[in-house]
Write a structure and sequence with these properties.
about 80 residues, mainly alpha, 30s Ribosomal Protein S14, Chain N
Length: about 80
């Protein structure tokens, strides 16, 4: 279950507060302290192909679009 979809169940559980608390306890995504899932792209939210150097935190797809604005030059 992704972190964006686990909250969709709340609308059904609003009438049952005890079951809602139990659902939150067991299905809430845990906070990451290390690994790939910790960092996401600032623009797209993607965590694959991430460029973290210089504190960019941008995926490679987004980097191609904004590289000129950031001051990077394309060679050859």
């Amino acid at each position: 279950m992704t972190s964006s979809s686990w909250e969709k169940m709340f609308t059904q559980l609003d009438a049952k507060p005890v079951k809602k608390q139990k659902y939150i306890k067991h299905n809430q995504p845990k906070k990451r302290s290390c690994g790939r899932a910790r960092f996401k792209c600032r623009i797209t939210g993607n965590n694959k192909g991430l460029i973290r150097k210089y504190g960019l935190n941008i995926c490679r797809h987004s980097f191609r679009e904004v590289a000129q604005k950031l001051g990077f030059k394309k060679f050859s």
